Amino acid sequence: MKPEARSQRVPNQSIRIKELRALVEKYRDAYYQQDQSLISDAEYDLLEQELKELEALEPLGAGRALTTKVGSGSGSVFDPVIHGQKMMSLDNVFDTEGFLAWAERVGPGPYLCEPKIDGLAVSLTYKNGVLIRAATRGDGEVGEDITQNAMTIQGVPHRLSGDNHPELVEVRGEVFFELEDFAKLNARIVSQGGKPFANPRNSASGSLRQKDPAVSATRPLKMLVHGFGVWSADVVSQSAVYQKLTNWGLPTTKRYQVLENPKLVLAYIAELEATRPTIEHEIDGVVIKVDDLATQESLGSTSRAPRWAIAYKYPPEQVNTKLLDIKVSIGRTGRATPFAVLAPVIVAGSQVEFATLHNQEQVKSKGVLIGDTVVLRKAGDVIPEILGPVVSLRDGSERAFVMPSNCPECQAKLEPASLGDIDLRCTNANSCPAQLRERIAYIGSRAALDIEALGYVSASALTNPVEPEVAPILSEADLFSLTMEKLLPIKAKVVDVDTGLAKKDAEGNDKVVDFFRKKNGEPSEVAIKLLANLEVAKTKPLWRLLVSLSIRHVGPVAARALADNFGSFKAIFEASQEQLAEVDGVGPTLAESITSWHLEDWHRQIITSWEAAGVQLSNPLHKQGSSKADGLFAGLSIVVTGSMETMTREAIESLIIENGGKASSSVSKNTAFLVAGPGAGSKLTKAESLEVLVITEAQFLDKLPA
Q1: Which of 10, 65, 319, 498 could form a disulfide with 16 if both were Cys (CB 3.0 to 4.6 A apart)?
Q2: Cβ distance 654 to 686 under 8 Å?
């Protein structure tokens, strides 16, 4: 928005400027001095941008105090340090248009591009190669002396490698926590009765600004350097600076690239955003710098930021919002999962209203109360995660979450499945409407029978209709007996896929629709497709049918092994536990789960009803121990990790098995390759350390026969 346009919306520009200055000062001080993020970075950026635009319209000398400041003044905990050269901030752009406008101003490349770490800016000063001082950025002119604490940071050398160092050199970088280390730190703090950190950035700042360096030493801080202050550089480019810093033993990012033109920079920005969830630390954008140092010098700086560098900010993956309530959902195996009901907020480009809390122990460990302002994080397509509360914003109205003792949908008792199990489960597996809905939806998923028209919403309509009074599906036994006569009368609530909660109409009532019937009374396309899909599903491979039964622990890998060895439902369920356990990939736990499942009368009725409806429950061509020895992946062990873009992990594993491979759960030197999606963690790290081939979901799918 142009400044003129913004100003037209402000009746009293001076009053608005005063309001904005007060807000920006408040949030800046909290961020830099108290290690608290009272609002998200994106919200702060919008406030600061509005203030900047309005101040630009003010007469010269009217005081642009805040938009020309870098940070906040140093606190009183540490001694002040005057920087040898001002530690500046960066101006931001948020889209392609903004970046191209900057590139046009600074001229042609090459440009050095690197991830923008969401950490704490720190300066390190070396004299004759020896670390003599470390300081925070502070207000850019004066920071805080954190020398003793900085000496505890992993990877920061107390003495530079090599020789012939400048008499004095000041390098700048970011201190941060890797996400895995952050999670471990919070778990430890909570176990000791403390309050968890809300986000990695604040955690890093608080850890580095401890009065006792011994405390800092217990925190696994890391640092990456990315530039210099005072230095009579004997190099001509930013990339040469990086090489020099690396040669001195200073930690630098391996993800930087030098690119010749803006088109290549935009491709880098897009590529880094796609891989953002896999990066070990928080990033919130890309820093682009003119690589040539002489050009940097000629471009100069404003009072707060260099003209030769810009930060391209991604849509926020971390925001603050209100925790309105905590409810409990019931899964297909009865598992009770708390989930957060949030004030709607945009994060990572999409609106979020719900977030999983996994179990009651996680709610406790995160330290969140109903009514809290919480920090929400979303990485790519990964389910949103609440990192923790903003404790300083509590007003006393917040209340603790109490895990219910009864199922919220059928009122049956919630109990652990076994001694020591953290998870609670609904004990009414037979008739709990939530469990049935989830099991029917699972049958339609790609991991099971892959029935396109049997998604979550359809499953809800079939098992929990408003009309008729008696649902057409009372158990899995009824699925293959569906007819058009049973489908057409169904009126059902439109539900949210993530939570199962009913969506509302314009009047605020539950939205109810004729689900399988058009307005003219004829069958809908969904109804026609569902019945056709069910006919095809009757002849799906035996292992898929076995997966569809939702026997605890029995996934595609075990189901395929059982189908290959026994060839029919009859043979599987007549086998002893010992015989089942002997099958490769099954073992005693799975064997016990299978036999226990079959002891239930209503479970056996499913098999009887499916067989009566014409479902093929045996493989007439079966030979015991058969497998696809000549398949594309025959003899290969393949691991799948992370969130897939177009398919579930289970579906990918099914394709591996169908093509003769083994879908393994762990990476080893014998792993043929790893299929890694966003959010890949320790398995990806291990694969890289063992030099195992890593491919994307798209690359995996390209391997499959057309």
Answers
A1: 10
A2: no
Give the DSSP letter string of 94-108. -SHHHHHHHHHHH-S
User: Which tokens hold the place of 111?
Assistant: 């440009």
The fold for domain 637-703 equals: Rossmann fold (3.40.50)
Q: Which of 23, 14, 18 is nearest to 47 (CA)?
A: 23
Confidence of residue 342 (pLDDT cuts 50, 70, 90): very high
The DSSP secondary structure of 44-76, one letter per residue, reads HHHHHHHHHHHHHTSPTTS--TTTT--S----S
Class of domain 3-56: mainly alpha
pLDDT digits (tens, 9 = 90+) for 53-63: 676 665 544 44
Q: Which residue has the higher pLDDT, 308 or 280?
A: 308
What 3-state DSSP class applies to 501? coil
CATH code linked to domain 542-612: 1.10.150.20
Do 322 and 345 form a contact (C-beta atoms < 8 A)?
no
Furthest-apart CA atoms within the chain: distance in Å: 89
Domain assignments of the chain as residue spans, ordered by start? 3-56, 80-313, 318-416, 433-537, 542-612, 637-703
- By CB atoms closer than 10 A (0-12, 13-18, 19+), residue 695 is middle
pLDDT of 634 above 60: yes
Check whether the bond before 110 is cis (ω within 30° of 0). yes
* Residue-wise pLDDT tens digits, 2-18: 333 333 444 466 777 77
Q: Which of the residue ranges 218-232, 341-355, 502-516, 584-598 has the most confident prediction, judged by mean pLDDT?
A: 584-598
Is 669 an annotated catalytic residue? no
CATH homologous superfamily for the domain 318-416: Nucleic acid-binding proteins (2.40.50.140)
Class of domain 80-313: alpha beta
pLDDT range class, residue 663, cuts 50, 70, 90: confident
* Other Cβ atoms within 10 Å of 613 Cβ, number: 15
Q: Give the integer Cα–Cα distance in Å for 593 and 614.
A: 26
Query: 3-56 and 542-612: same fold?
Result: no
Q: Two tokens at 258?
A: 């030098």
Residues contacting residue 21 through CB under 8 Å, at least 6 positions apart? 51, 65, 66
| Mean of per-residue pLDDT scores for the chain | 84
Residue of 69, 116, 244, 313 marked catalytic: 116
This prediction has a pTM of 0.55
Query: Could you tell me which residue, 78 or 548, shows the higher pLDDT?
Result: 548
